[in-house]
Amino acid sequence: MNCWFKQNYILKIMMKRVTLISILFTFLILSKSLYANDFAVFEDSLKKMAHKIILPEHDFERLALNLEFKNYFEEVLKMEGSLNYPFDSLLTISRINSPKGNFRIITWYVPLSNNQFEYFGFFQSKQSVGKYDIYPLTDRSSIIEDPEYQTLDHQKWYGAYYTDLIHKRYRRKDYYVLLGWRADNALTRKRIIEPLRVLGKGSPSFGRPVFRYEENRHRRIIFEYSAKATMTIRYESQLIEPGNRAKGIIVFDRLAPTQSFLEGNFQFYVPETNIFDAFIFDSGKWEFIEEVDARNANRRPSARPTPPTE
């Protein structure tokens, strides 16, 4: 049996498994058997499935197992009470709830061969008591031109693994920003500041013109740097001006090429030593500030899913 037929044969078997599991899971939910409200049972199954994703050698096998995990997780998230269940044992899955508890964003990635990654996720929003809308996030970054300037949605998503959610209010409106990590090649990594808006029907919209930065055209901020380096980006309280109250800012390493003639070649960009810039929220906008003192932070951010170290 040649390689092509072998891959297709295995893939067909796995797809049948996915369909069978979905049918069985739906039956269990409808029959309300097997402790329908005991999410610990489902969490344990998800934990085992997530662990198996990276075990196979071949990409198509990993993606088939991921599809099985994704379909199962979606059915669990549809169940009453799921929005309040933390799924803490899913250590490779980022799960971030809104401060008001009206939505949650879940993201993860699958490492593939040749230093490629595929990103997946769900946006779960409260529809009514005990009922939720589930929006699978589809990474279409390969076809998104100039992603810094695009407004996107769950069907056309700039895939990332999110590590924090920041909430601000201005004139009775909510402003959300996600902090994220992304890898899509062997040479560079990315850190992302992603504005999030929840539309009237509960669906997510990604990217907004809320940055006072450069020409004020950015709808998301993307920092790209060497895969050999580590960039810090976090949200914390900071004393911007002596005598004033501490303000919440997004603080991050300033990036620069190792040599001036390498400008624009991001595989050679690394953090400058002890130089930090920031964005501060002011009147509905995130204003760029140069050279903040990151040592005088009043408060560290609350614990969030730990991002990959690449």
Q: Can you write the helix and strand succession as a string?
A: HHHEEEEEEEEEEEEEEE
- Count of helices? 3
Helical content class: 10-25%
Helix-strand category:
alpha+beta
Instruction: Give the tally of structural domains.
Output: 2
- Rounded mean pLDDT is 86
The main pleated sheet reads as: 6 strands, antiparallel
Parts with pLDDT < 50 across at least 5 consecutive residues: 30-36, 298-304
Instruction: Kindly state the number of beta strands.
Output: 15
Please state roughly what percent of the residues sit in beta strands, choosing from under 5%, 5-15%, 15-25%, 25-35%, 35-45% or over 45%: 35-45%
Rough outline: globular
Span of the ends, CA to CA:
38 Å
Give the C-alpha Rg: 21 Å
Helix and strand arrangement:
Elements: H1 3-31, H2 39-53, H3 59-77, E1 94-97, E2 103-111, E3 117-128, E4 131-138, E5 152-153, E6 161-170, E7 173-183, E8 188-198, E9 204-206, E10 211-212, E11 221-226, E12 233-238, E13 247-257, E14 269-282, E15 285-292
Could you characterize the architecture of this molecule?
- The chain has helices at 3-31, 39-53, 59-77; strands at 94-97, 103-111, 117-128, 131-138, 152-153, 161-170, 173-183, 188-198, 204-206, 211-212, 221-226, 233-238, 247-257, 269-282, 285-292.
- Residues 30-36 and 298-304 have low confidence and may be disordered.
- It is α+β, with helices and mostly antiparallel strands.
- The two termini are 38 Å apart.
- 20% of the residues lie in helices and 38% in strands.
- The chain is globular and about 50 Å long.
- Strands 5, 6, 7, 8, 9 and 11 form a six-stranded antiparallel β-sheet that branches. A five-stranded mixed β-sheet has the order 10-15-14-13-12, with no helix packed on it.
